[in-house]
Amino acid sequence: MSEQSGTLADDPFIGRQPTSHERLSGLSWDASYHDGPAPWDIGQPQPAIVRLASEGGFAGAVLDAGCGTGENTLHVASLGLSVLGVDVAATALAIARAKADDRGIKVEFAAADAFQLECLGRRFETVLDCGLFHSFDGDERPGYVASLASVTEHDGTLYVLCFSDGVPDTGPHPITQEELRAAFNPSDGWNVAAVEPDRIHTRYHDDGAPAWFATIKRI
Ligand SMILES: C[S@@+](CC[C@H](N)C(=O)[O-])C[C@H]1O[C@@H](n2cnc3c(N)ncnc32)[C@H](O)[C@@H]1O
Fold first, then answer.
1. Which residue in 26, 27, 54, 124 could disulfide with 63, CB within 3.0 to 4.6 Å?
2. CA 134 to chain centre
């Protein structure tokens, strides 16, 4: 990695292992937010999350893992729930906090590594992963899933919205149903309750990209 601005040298988490996405791109996650909106940053909550919230899918303390500039976090918080959004990208968090101030929404944003969520010292009844799981490769998933388990209340619910496989025009990190079920399996304290086809909207898909919306219970 070079030392120029936007590389991993600028990452606030000294000693954090670069994720596979960062290794492949050669850029820190934070750099994605330096020159205007990132491809996934659509300036509004994902329709799937809005629908889920309207159906009462969020309860208790909520964690948004890899919250980016916070549109999903802010939407859930605007409904009166207690929500913490975490991310490694300081630039994204600064944008998220500015939006919360502008909109007068009470919400918390914090810098945290999704592989070390236990450092938060908190537990959550509902956890949201919108576009984070699918950015991790197979070697990274067990550590991330264990980290999620450490902060999800027993009988709590994890929602994962990720690009799906086997369909044209999907996103850059397609995930199979089998990969979801293998990552969140009963021997690691999870039960995949449902995996439904959905869409993830991006800045470069007209009507969103094919996605899986997984509802996963902590057992
Ligand atoms: C594809 S973006 C999705 C952002 C947001 N959830 C949304 O829907 O707009 C993935 C986000 O996860 C964050 N991220 C990546 N690795 C992370 C890690 N190890 N810990 C916390 N956040 C991470 C990135 O900085 C980025 O903001």
1. 124
2. 9
Closest residue (by CA) to atom 12 of ligand 1?
A: 66
Q: How far apart are CA 117 and CA 97, in angstroms?
A: 20
What φ, ψ does residue 57 adopt, rounded to 5°? -70, -15
- Mean per-residue pLDDT for 113-120? 96
pLDDT of residue 168: 79
Ligand 1 atom nearest to CA at 89 = 25
The DSSP letter of residue 186 is G
pLDDT, tens only, 128-150:
999 999 999 999 999 999 999 99
Give the residue, out of 27, 73, 87, with the most ligand 1 atoms within 8 A of its beta carbon, to mutate for a pocket test: 87
Answer yes or no: are the C-beta atoms of 89 and 29 closer than 8 Å: yes
Q: Would the pLDDT of 214 be above 50?
A: yes
Helix (H) or strand (E) holding 83: strand 83-87
Q: How far is CA 109 from the centre of its chain?
A: 13
User: Any residues with Cβ below 6 Å from ligand 1, and which?
Assistant: 19, 29, 40-41, 66-68, 72, 86-89, 92, 113-115, 130-132, 135
Q: Which atom of ligand 1 is nearest to the CA of 136?
A: 16
* pLDDT at residue 6 greater than cutoff 80: no
Residue 195, pLDDT score: 98
The Cα 40–Cα 11 span in angstroms is 20
